């Protein structure tokens, strides 16, 4: 059974629909009016999709490929788009992730697998800092590289739509592991390559 199917089975869509209907009534809306009558169902279907990562383990995407050449040079996948939902206000935040690692002993993974790890970590009620940590720790646990750097930059709708109301502001977080923690030159190289446009 696939992880997506398992995640779907754990969603109680009827409970979500009842809760959305209650919220609509609580804010003074009529959940039976034409424009809202199907909203609880639409929200339940949307939650099933955007929170699919809740019951998945990001590490499952990291298949190891051994290279005979014993490649031990930096690998970077940058500008990985991600979308998530702030766990404090349940509104979206979205941006780009940049992932760099230095393989050890020729243990590589597919480039798309790094994007899948980011996506799985993001598809749940989340904190941006936790996404970076989860991605970095998953790569360390499965690939055991010399080092990992994960940088996320995102716009948070909880700062754009409400509160301070500052559209366009970006939050940048990072998680640094292994050689990148201690070796200033290695960290500087990763950062300069990530910042190349």
UniProtKB/TrEMBL annotation:
One annotated GO biological process: tetrahydrobiopterin biosynthetic process
MF annotations from Gene Ontology: GTP binding; GTP cyclohydrolase I activity; zinc ion binding
Domain of life: Bacteria
Membrane-spanning residues: none
Keyword Thylakoid: no
GO CC terms of this entry: cytoplasm
Pathway the protein acts in: Cofactor biosynthesis; 7,8-dihydroneopterin triphosphate biosynthesis; 7,8-dihydroneopterin triphosphate from GTP: step 1/1
Entry binding sites for Zn(2+): 86, 89, 158
InterPro entries assigned to the protein according to its UniProt record, in alphabetical order: GTP-CH-I_C/QueF (IPR043133), GTP-CH-I_N (IPR043134), GTP_CycHdrlase_I (IPR001474), GTP_CycHdrlase_I_CS (IPR018234), GTP_CycHdrlase_I_dom (IPR020602)
The protein's Enzyme Commission number: 3.5.4.16
This protein's UniProt keywords: GTP-binding, Hydrolase, Metal-binding, Nucleotide-binding, One-carbon metabolism, Zinc
Record's catalysed reaction(s): GTP + H2O = 7,8-dihydroneopterin 3'-triphosphate + formate + H(+)
UniProt keyword GTP-binding present: yes
PROSITE patterns membership: GTP_CYCLOHYDROL_1_1
Assembly and oligomerization: Homopolymer.
Stored HAMAP family: FolE
Family that this chain belongs to: Belongs to the GTP cyclohydrolase I family.
The name this protein goes by in its record: GTP cyclohydrolase 1
Species, as recorded: Acetoanaerobium sticklandii (strain ATCC 12662 / DSM 519 / JCM 1433 / CCUG 9281 / NCIMB 10654 / HF) (Clostridium sticklandii)
Name of the coding gene: mtrA
């Amino acid at each position: 059974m696939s992880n997506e199917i398992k995640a779907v089975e754990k969603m109680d869509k009827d409970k979500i629909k009842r809760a959305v209907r209650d919220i609509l009534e609580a804010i003074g809306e009529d959940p039976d009016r034409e424009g809202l009558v199907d909203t609880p169902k639409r929200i339940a279907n949307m939650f099933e999709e955007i929170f699919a990562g809740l019951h998945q383990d990001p590490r499952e995407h990291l298949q190891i490929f051994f290279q005979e050449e014993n490649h031990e040079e930096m690998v970077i996948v940058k500008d990985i788009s991600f979308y998530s939902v702030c766990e404090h206000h349940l509104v979206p935040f979205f941006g780009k992730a940049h992932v760099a690692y230095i393989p050890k002993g020729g243990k590589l993974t597919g480039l798309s697998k790094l994007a899948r790890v980011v996506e799985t970590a993001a598809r749940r009620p989340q904190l941006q800092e936790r996404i970076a940590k989860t991605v970095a720790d998953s790569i360390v646990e499965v690939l055991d590289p010399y080092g990992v750097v994960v940088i996320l930059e995102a716009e948070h709708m909880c700062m754009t739509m409400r509160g301070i109301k500052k559209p366009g502001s970006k939050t940048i977080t990072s998680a640094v592991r292994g050689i990148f923690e201690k070796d200033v030159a290695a960290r500087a190289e990763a950062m300069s390559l990530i910042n190349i446009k």
